[in-house]
Each structure stands twice: as C-alpha cells, then as structure tokens.
Amino acid sequence: MAGANKPFMPQLIYFEPRALEYPLGKELFDRFSKLEVEIRETTSHNQIRDLPGDNDFQKYRTAKSTLVVGIRKTLKFDTSKPSAEYAIPLATGCMGHCHYCYLQTTLGSKPYLRTYVNTDEIFAQAEKYMQERAPEITRFEASCTSDIVGIDHLTHNLKRAIEFFGATDLGRLRFTTKYHHVDHLLDAKHQGKTRFRFSVNSNYVIKNFELGTSPLEERINAAIKVAEAGYPLGFIVAPLYLHKDWEEGYKELFDILEAKIPKHLTNDLTFELIQHRFTKPAKRVIEKNYPKSKLEMNEEERKYKWGRYGIGKYVYQDDQATRLRETVENYIHTMFPQAKIEYFT
Q: Residue 1 domain-assigned?
C-alpha cells in the first residue's frame, strides 16, 4: 500500500436512520448518492456485521475503507492531556494503516470510520465547557480518535469546527494529521484560534509503519500552505522510535524541515514529542492485522508504566528515553531556536 496521494474515498457507506433527521445528514446522503459508492442502512454502527471479505484480514481492510454516518450520542467529552483540556468528538476511526497506532486497541473490532452529523449539539457542549472554565482559555483536541483532516474533504465537519472556535473568545482548537488534503480549509475563518499540526517522522518510520498516509514531502508542503493561510503551525514527532541509525534518521527529518519551511513562518511554531509505546492488547491486535510488521514490541526490553483505566503501557527505558529526548530537542533548538517544545512524553 503506497502513500495516500488521492483523497480518501470510502468503498462502502452506512447511514444510521437518525442521521437523516439532521440537515448535515441529508446533505451528506445527497452528496454520497451521486458517487459510485454502495450505500447501506444500519440501525446502529454496533450492528455492522456483514463487511465484504473472505477472512478477518480482508474484512479489517474493508472496514478501514467504510464510513458510517451517524450521531454522537455521548456528549461528555474525554480529557486530552497533555495537548488540550478536552477531546472534541467530530469523527472516529482512520483510513491509514499505521502499525503502531493506539486506535488499534481503542477501536478494536470496529476499525471503520464514523462521522457525526449532530455538530450543533457537539459545539453547544464545547460552549458549556468553555463557560465552566471561563475566564481561562479552553483547548479542544479534534484528532484523539481519528485523523480528522483525512476525511474532512467529504464532510467539512472540521471546517465548521474551525469557524465555530474562530468566533469564540475562550476556545482554541487543535488537531494533527498525516494527510495533505487541506485546500478546502485554507479559506476558513480561523481567526488564529486553531493550531494546525502535522505528524512527521524519520524516513524509516514513515516507510515501514505509516502505510496509506501522505508522503513526508506532501505533509510539509501542506504545512507551508496552512501557515501561509495564517494558521498557527505545529509538528508532532510521534512515535519517536529507536531504529537502526535513528540519530541520523531524525537529523535528516529536521534538516528537511529547516530547508523547506520559510523562516517567516516559524515565529509561532510548536513541537510535541511522543516516544513509542504499546499496550499488551494493542500488541495482540497489531500482530494480528499486520503479521509481517517490523515494529519492535519486546516487553522485556521496555519499562512498564501505569496508564489510565488500569491499562499499563510499555515505554523505553529511562536512559533510552533521555537520549531520544535530548537528541531530538537538540535538533529543534539548533534549527528552530524560536520554536516551543510543548512536551515530551
């Protein structure tokens, strides 16, 4: 599977009946009906059973190209530390095939994509959270459960969210993406209140573990476009992964970023650094769905760290994590001295 140069187009679309009670649901139904895509009805996304495919392996890949249009019933937002106060739920699932992705576990047996049409209710809930925290600024992360940019050319939910937060005093929106299909977002009235971040990595990680995503060069070109459109820009380097010659691999990444991004666009630049981690349930799912993956998940060589909900994760040993952190932070300080490193985790 090569990189995703063409915007995502689902092979199969399901509509939950209540979705058609919302103007956006009707609009999407009309739009998708004009495409050469099979449309089915489902009482609930939980009832989807009969995805095409002869075995689990094929069904998993079909699910990754299936879109469910429904409503978001739970309007309680999860927290989203350290990147934001809350996760705003606009979509779930991702069309990418990143071997290390934590969505492998959280979505488990339901890896299809879902988009929600009750956006006004979701934004009203966000408004409540902002009022509760006033006069503090409240940050909302839109990419906790999906790569929202990757499907937004179909739904424009992200664009609606950008304009909603652009009109607020105390709200800020942030999200990250591995896709370059950003043209429809360039004219959004963001008012500087949305930080547009791109996930970047060494060539080794992108080539071996980030299948079905945009090539690095395309992501950087898209980053330049959004920064020129006035969006605050950021990069997430995740997962930081100890592969053979990793110091050179990450140095090459930052050399490319420094060479390509015009200096005048780096005045308000952020970096977030996340070391590779995995859980036992994620490891099982990854090995099942990507049996030939080169992803290293040797529990004996890692440090065990207690996590939320009692599910612990395996991270690098302290000395390895320190070396990773110091090496990458040194590249950033040298090449982007004015950039802010928001955290390393």
A: no
Domain of 45, in residue numbers: 12-344
User: Which CATH number belongs to the domain containing residue 266 in this structure?
Assistant: 3.80.30.30
Residue 175 CA neighbour count, 13 Å, CB half: 29
Return d(Cα 175, Cα 194) in angstroms, integer.
8
CA distance 236 to 292: 26
Flag whether pLDDT at 173 surpasses 50. yes
Query: Alpha-carbon distance 123 to 129, whole Å?
Result: 10
Helices then strands, counting H and E runs in the chain, come out as 11, 17
User: In 3-state terms, what secondary structure has residue 174?
Assistant: strand
In Å, what is the CA distance from 341 to each residue of 4, 171, 329?
A: 29, 21, 8
Interstrand relation of 171-177 and 138-141 (parallel, antiparallel or unpaired): parallel
Alpha carbon 10 to its chain centroid, in Å, reads: 18
- List the alpha helices (DSSP H) in 134-215: 148-155, 157-166, 203-209
The domain total for the chain is 1
Q: Is 2 contained in some domain? A: no
Confirm whether 4 is domain-assigned.
no
Nearest to 15 by CA among 71, 87, 56: 71
Q: What distance in Å separates the CA atoms of residue 72 and residue 70, rounded to the nearest whole number? A: 7
Task: Say if pTM beats, i.e. exceeds, 0.90.
Answer: yes
pLDDT, tens digit, for every residue of 244-299? 999 999 999 999 999 999 999 999 999 999 999 999 988 998 998 899 999 999 99
